[in-house]
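quick q for whoever's on today - can somebody do inverse folding on this one?? i tried earlier but teh output was garbage lol. C-alpha cells:
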C-alpha cells in the first residue's frame, strides 16, 4: 500500500531482451511473432491501470490460445527475465525501485521477488510487461498467488498507479486482557471515495495485514512495557498519554498509515491502558 516509481523502460525493449537470449530457437521464433501482441497488451494495461480497471482486460486472458505459445511466453519470464543476464537487468531494476527495499504491498517485508498484478498463468502476454510486475516480499507474492480481480473493488492496490497515503485508512483499537494487545483494521476516510475505500479494505484483507501488524505491535508493546510502567508510577496517566501521543505524532510524520502511528494513537486514547497498562 506504498507507492513505487513507475518503470521508465519500454515494454518492447524488455520483451526483446527476455526472448533474445533464450537458447531454444523454436521458442525464440514463436516469441518474435508475438511482438506486436505483447506491445498492444502493455499499451492497454497502461491505459486502464490508473483507473482500477484491470478486470476489464479479459480479452487478453488465456491468449494466445495455443498452450505451447503460452508456455513460451511464461518461459520469457522464468528463463529470459529471471535467469538470463539481459532480462535480469530489468528484473533487478524493478526490484531496486522499492523504497528502502520494503515491500509496497504490506509495507513491512523485504522485497525479494516480482509479483504479477495480473497472473502470468492466465495472462501470459503480460508476463514480462513492466507495468504488470511489482516488487514484493515472498509472503505477499504467495498470498496473492494467481488471483485476478473481478471488479474494481476487488483489485488490490497497484503501487505504480495508486497512492493510499494521501489520507488516513489504518486504525487500531486496544483489546483488554491480561496482556494488552492491539487490533488493526482498515477504516479509510470518505475522501477516498467508495471504490478506493473498498479496494483498501480488500487489499488489507488479501494480504492479511491485521495479522502482520498485530505481530509487530505485540513485540513493540513488550519492548516498551517497562518504560511505560515506570513513567506511569512516577508521573501518572497524563504523562503516559503525552508520551504516547508524542510517539504517534512522530510516526505520523514518517508515514500517516504505518502501524506504529495507529497503535500509539490507540494507546494514548485508551483510559484503561493509561491507568493500568
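ok took a stab at it. sequence:
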Amino acid at each position: 500500500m506504498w507507492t513505487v516509481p513507475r518503470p521508465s523502460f519500454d515494454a518492447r525493449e524488455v520483451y526483446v531482451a527476455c526472448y533474445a537470449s533464450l537458447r531454444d530457437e523454436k521458442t525464440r521464433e514463436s516469441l518474435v511473432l508475438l511482438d506486436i501482441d505483447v506491445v498492444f497488451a502493455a499499451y492497454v494495461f497502461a491505459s486502464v491501470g490508473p483507473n482500477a480497471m484491470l478486470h476489464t482486460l479479459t480479452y487478453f486472458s488465456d491468449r494466445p490460445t495455443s498452450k505451447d505459445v503460452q508456455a513460451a511466453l511464461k518461459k520469457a519470464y522464468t528463463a529470459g527475465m529471471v535467469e538470463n543476464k539481459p532480462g535480469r537487468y530489468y528484473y533487478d531494476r524493478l526490484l531496486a525501485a522499492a523504497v528502502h527495499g520494503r515491500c509496497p504491498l504490506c509495507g513491512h517485508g523485504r522485497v525479494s521477488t516480482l509479483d504479477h498484478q495480473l497472473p502470468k498463468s492466465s495472462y501470459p502476454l503480460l508476463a514480462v510487461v513492466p507495468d504488470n510486475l511489482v516488487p514484493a516480499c515472498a509472503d505477499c507474492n504467495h498470498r496473492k498467488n494467481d488471483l485476478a480481480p473481478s471488479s474494481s473493488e476487488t483489485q488490490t492496490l497497484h503501487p505504480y498507479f495508486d497512492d493510499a497515503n494521501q489520507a488516513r485508512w489504518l486504525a487500531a483499537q486496544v483489546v483488554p486482557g491480561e496482556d494488552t494487545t492491539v487490533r488493526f483494521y482498515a477504516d479509510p476516510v470518505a475522501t477516498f471515495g467508495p471504490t478506493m475505500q473498498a479496494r483498501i479494505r480488500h487489499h488489507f484483507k488479501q494480504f492479511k495485514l491485521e495479522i502482520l501488524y498485530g505481530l509487530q505491535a505485540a513485540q513493540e508493546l513488550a519492548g516498551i512495557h517497562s518504560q511505560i510502567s515506570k513513567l506511569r508510577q512516577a508521573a501518572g496517566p497524563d504523562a503516559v498519554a503525552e508520551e504516547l501521543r508524542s510517539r504517534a505524532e512522530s510516526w505520523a510524520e514518517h508515514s500517516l498509515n504505518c502501524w506504529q502511528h495507529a497503535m500509539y494513537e490507540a494507546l494514548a486514547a485508551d483510559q484503561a491502558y493509561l491507568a493500568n497498562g
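fwiw The CA atoms of residues 70 and 124 lie 6 Å apart. also The chain is about 50% helix and 5% strand. so keep that in mind when u check it
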